[in-house]
Amino acid sequence: MFRKAFLNTAITCLGIVAAVNNVSHAQTQSEMNQSANVDYKKADAELNKSYRDVLNKLDASGKTDLKAAQNAWIKYRDLDCKFQSGGASGGSVQAMVVAGCLTDKTVARTKELNGLLHCQEGDVSCVVAP
User: What's the pLDDT band for 3 if we cut at 50, 70, 90?
Assistant: First the structure.
């Protein structure tokens, strides 16, 4: 009786954990690396959309400045993620660590760019006119 109750409880708990962890079904390191890369590609696509949206609202000078800032940000992002993944250098987990870092920084940059599209009226520091 105790064994049956224990098994039922364990199966129920596993079902709850599976539902919570439904983000990715990756089992192997290779699958986790691929999943992290997919997450990064999605974040990068969203960043590119936000970047284009901001770029389209700028004058020629603003476009030049944003392009320069974005290129500098990309260099920073890539170098910082290389640095932050140094502890996993050469290991099978390195690709996942790099992709996770790239995703986090890309999501943050997307929020930053989106913020430019929603300046408060009267904000004299806003580069994108409301």
Answer: low
